[in-house]
Amino acid sequence: MPDERNVSVSSDFYEKMGEDVKISDVQNVMETLVEEHLDKIMEGSGVCTCDYCRADIKALALNKLPARYASRLEGNLITRVDNMRRQASTDVIAAIMEAVNTVGTNPRHEPRK
Q: I need a labelling partner for 7 at 20 to 30 A (CA). Which of 39, 44, 48, 91 fits?
């Protein structure tokens, strides 16, 4: 199986498809997977769930995970998310839990009462 990081697609590929490709047509699949697990893990941990803490936890978790980009064209993103979900869910959950511990110990705001 080829390493996905070494696969490239020439620009004429998209011209043949008749698509105007924009950067918004590409998404980090790991971000989707983190979003799927984030709220449930945060709620179960007792960590603050304010927007600041949620954003910090998400950013820390994503920085611990390898970026895996997929195109949104013709349903490709849905297929990639399904494939990555099976392969990466353990790593995603571990990264979120580590981020929860970090932010829970050092929130960027005063403790809530």
A: 91
